[in-house]
Amino acid sequence: MTTDPRVALITGASQGIGAGLEAGYRKLGYAVVANSRTIDGGDDPMVLAVPGDVAQPGVGGRIVDAAVQRFGRIDTVVNNAGLFIARPFTDYTDEEYDAITGVNLRGFFEISRAAVARMLDQGGGGHLVTISTTLVEHANSAVPSALASLTKGGLNAATRALAVEYATQGIRSNAVALGIIRTPMHQPSDYDALATLHPVGHVGEVSDVVDAVLYLENAPFVTGEILHVDGGQSAGH
């Protein structure tokens, strides 16, 4: 069983932030296990594409097993897959609740539980990184999104809880709380309006998120941190 290179598992890796993270970890020399509901493998033998809906029970374990079978270990998980729907609270449907909690909460639980179990078995520690949102702490009436706060707020709390639970075993747990990032999630025509949500007056780029995650990857004394990459949004407006 190989112990080199280190291996990062990234969910929601087919486009946008996830695709940027895949490239970033490869530049660090990591092998990457890339997951989304539909994802195709490329030509890089050090990238394993594993399709699957992390909201479904058992999928997290299957993805981790595939990672270990191919690369022999797992060192980092980036919980990037997420679903965001902005809507007045009373307009959310049962189907939207199930979809959002399924991806954001069950997906985190599925992947992280299986990965941490593997990290404990193999020894040597590990790292969980979860993508969150500044809206958890800085609600905005222009962007009503209580289900984002419900789910991502819980993930922020779980990030800190896991950091403390596994600190003595070398497994770190951090989160990156985002403002608006330029990704396929948004229409290009919306960016001028979205820029006004941030004190800096512009939206973030995928590279800003990748830089933040890789900083955490290379910061062994940092755990339990909610790192804000939001153009000052969490500070006020």
TrEMBL record:
Name of the protein in question: Dehydrogenase
Pfam families: adh_short_C2
Coiled coil: none
Keyword Oxidoreductase: yes
Biological process terms in GO annotation: fatty acid elongation
Gene3D superfamilies listed in its UniProt record: NAD(P)-binding Rossmann-like Domain
Molecular-function GO term, any one: 2-(R)-hydroxypropyl-CoM dehydrogenase activity
Family: Belongs to the short-chain dehydrogenases/reductases (SDR) family.
InterPro entries registered for this protein in UniProt: NAD(P)-bd_dom_sf, SDR_fam
Keywords: Oxidoreductase
CDD domains in UniProt: SDR_c
Keyword Cell membrane assigned: no
Organism: Mycolicibacterium aurum
This enzyme's EC code(s): 1.1.1.268
